[in-house]
Every structure is written in C-alpha cells, then in structure tokens.
Amino acid sequence: MPYYTKVLQPDEKVLVVGRLHWSIYGPALVVLAAALALLMLSYRVSDPVWQHYTLLAAGGVCVLGLLLLLGESIRRHATEIVVTDRRVIFKRGLLSRHTVEMNVSKIETVDVEQGLAGRIWGYGTLLIRGTGSGFEPLVGVGSPIQIRNAIVVG
Questions:
Q1: pLDDT tens-digit readout, 45-59
Q2: Is the dihedral of CA 57, 59, 65, 67 positive or negative?
Q3: Does residue 113 contact residue 125 with C-beta atoms inside 8 Å?
Q4: Fewer beta carbons within 10 Å, N or C terminal of the chain?
C-alpha cells in the first residue's frame, strides 16, 4: 500500500503520481557491461593463471553491478512523488522513511532541468521552491514536465 494513500485527506484528489525514471539503472548497467567485457576477455587469454584472474575479476565486477542494480531498484520502488490538489508529497526510504510535504499554495516556482538525454527519454530534475524553504532537488524523475504542470496548473 503506497504511503500517500495513508496520508490523503478525505476530499483530497490525486492529480499525478511520479516515480524515478528507469535511467537511474544506467551506472549499474555500465558496470555489468564491464563484467561481460572482462568475461569475454578471459576467453581470449591463453595463460590459464591469467584466465583464472580475469574470470575472478569478471565475477567480482558482476557482483558489484548486481548490488548497484539492487540498490537502485530499491531506491526506485521506495520513492513516491505525489501531487494532489492541495499539496506535493515526496517520500523516500524503505526501512526508514523521509517525507516532505508542501502545500501547493506555498510553492513559488517549479523548475525542470533536462539535458539532451533527459529530453529524449523523458526524465529530469525537479526543483520545487516554496516560501521560506523548498524540496531537495528530485533527481532522475520520470515525466518531470507532467509533474510540473500538475503543480503549477493544479
């Protein structure tokens, strides 16, 4: 059961539910590709001792890549970004929980930062600034323009 369903007021409407984009898996996939390259290299090495070392290195890099992949998967599934008609709710964390909520009436600006890859694949960074404070930058958010429009237009 998502966190935001537990904190919604009786007549509060959810406008959009955001999540982190799949691109956060990029570094883990690069490490796994390096493990695959090491594995392929190990079959080209003729010396059995060096072949053993390259196989061990490929295994170690593969384990590192899988751990990175698992960590990002947990982060992606434990992060909620919800815009309602009254507030913006940001929750992260699986075992421990960190939540930030801001009333829509207190939001001054919503900035979206997208590089070329972010524009092509639909992800970016949301900067939500409110009166007196703001959210930490929400990096790697999928469909940031849709979330921005839900906050600004309401």
A1: 889 999 999 999 999
A2: negative
A3: yes
A4: N
